[in-house]
TrEMBL record:
PROSITE patterns: HTH_TETR_2. Residues 28-47 bind DNA. Pfam families: TetR_N (PF00440). This is TetR family transcriptional regulator. Keywords: DNA-binding, Transcription, Transcription regulation. It comes from Rhizobium grahamii. Residues 5-65 form the HTH tetR-type domain. GO terms for molecular function: DNA binding. The keyword Protein transport does not apply.
């Protein structure tokens, strides 16, 4: 990693820790400069303003999420050929990873704070929108594979089902943070897992 990249990464690491402690609004550029030991001009070389920093934190979270989803669901597919069982296993592995916020996945908390505190910035809005659409495509593809083999017990629109995964994940982050219950997000993922399992479970035929 080149020196410039190392400095940028260091700024983001320090900013992430500060945001976790006191929110994005409570994190000042001056304290980031002091903590990282760089000059003010050095900071502005990497980030033109706080909005640029917020966008960078959000983008880093999105990239990390994509990597995590790739690793978890690829591993699940290696362990189970059946698309439904593979997806359920993937959710189980994901819940285990997210069972200890913020230690399990601190970036998601940082991204949520940055997004809501910079909600009216157009770059932030567009970055978040594209991430949500990418997650929709990802999970839609998984449900399409499942529906080749299994018929849902209730009629359901596939994009809405795909969006439900993101809704549970993002909503679980807010829930865990508001209630100060680190396990809350993982519990919500497991509830989603139970719903998907029941949705594609063959109906019981009574004699």
């Amino acid at each position: 990693m080149r020196k410039g990249e190392e400095t940028r990464t260091r700024i983001l690491d320090v900013a992430e820790a500060a945001v976790l402690q006191k929110g994005f609004g409570g994190t000042s550029i001056d304290e980031l400069i002091a903590e990282t030991g760089i000059t003010k001009s050095g900071f502005f070389y990497h980030f033109r303003d706080k909005n640029a920093l917020a966008k960078a934190l959000l983008e880093r979270y999105i990239e990390n999420d994509e990597r995590i989803y790739d690793e978890i669901f690829t591993r699940a597919r290696q362990l189970a050929d059946d698309p439904l069982q593979s997806f359920l296993l993937g959710l189980k592995l994901l819940a285990e990873l997210l069972s200890d916020l913020p230690n399990g996945h601190p970036g998601c908390l940082v991204a949520t704070v940055c997004y809501y505190e910079r909600l009216f910035d157009r770059d932030i809005q567009e970055t978040n929108k594209q991430a949500v659409l990418a997650w929709r495509r990802r999970f839609r593809g998984m449900f399409e594979e499942i529906m080749v083999v299994y018929t849902p017990r209730e009629p359901i629109e596939i994009d809405q089902l795909a969006d439900m995964v993101s809704t549970v994940l993002e909503g679980g982050i807010v829930l865990s943070k508001a209630l100060k219950e680190p396990q809350g997000l993982a519990d919500q993922v497991l509830v989603l897992r139970s719903f998907v399992k029941l949705l594609f479970q063959p109906p019981i035929v009574r004699q």
